[in-house]
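ok so I'm stuck.
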Amino acid sequence: MGAIYRREMGAFFSSAIAYIFLGVFYMIAGFFFVNSTIMYATTDLSGAFGSVFLILIFLIPLMTMKLFSEEKRQKTEQGLLTAPIGITSIVLGKYFAALTLYTMGISIFLVFALIIEFFGGVAWATVLSNFVAIFFLGAAFIAVTLFVSALTENQIISAIVGFLSLLVLYLMDSIAASINVTFIADILKTLSFYSRYNEFVTGLFNLSSVIFFISVAVIFNFLSVRVFEKRRWS
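replied:
not stuck anymore, here's the structure
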């Protein structure tokens, strides 16, 4: 797994992907920080954290779109599948590389908190709670879009389907509200990513939501492994 991880991290920074992802993320996060915190002369970072959900829907599919689809397009997938390394290690190596780049992006919020701390006081418990939420939300999103990338060799299709998948997860509450069958609506509300994330933004640390995001990440990484195990033996 370590070799795959180092390979993917090198690929991120030898191409424009890492720089585009980090640059755009920092710029948009900075915009929300200024407009929701600095402009209101408050030490509350909840507005900035709350706005980042939409950023992730757009940026994470762009970050992960080529992780597997590029292997198929360049015909290097068979080399990976026949290498003396487990499929799980391949998937997790790519997953943790993407998660590392993502963590580099969201760490800007800790910088924002330090800036506010310099001028006033920051509720660090709330900041760290939000940071944990955004980390595990991203971990789940990356696993979902990585699975999408494993299904196609076209990067554009991977990005579009990944975006649509995350958009559906974002709109789950609205979808649930439009369904008249109560038990189906309740199930959809249980699967709502936004309402779970929003709990943290409002100051409520919910361990069950953290477990939910981790479970989603585990499930979709498992599905990615199954996709490649099927290809290895087909």
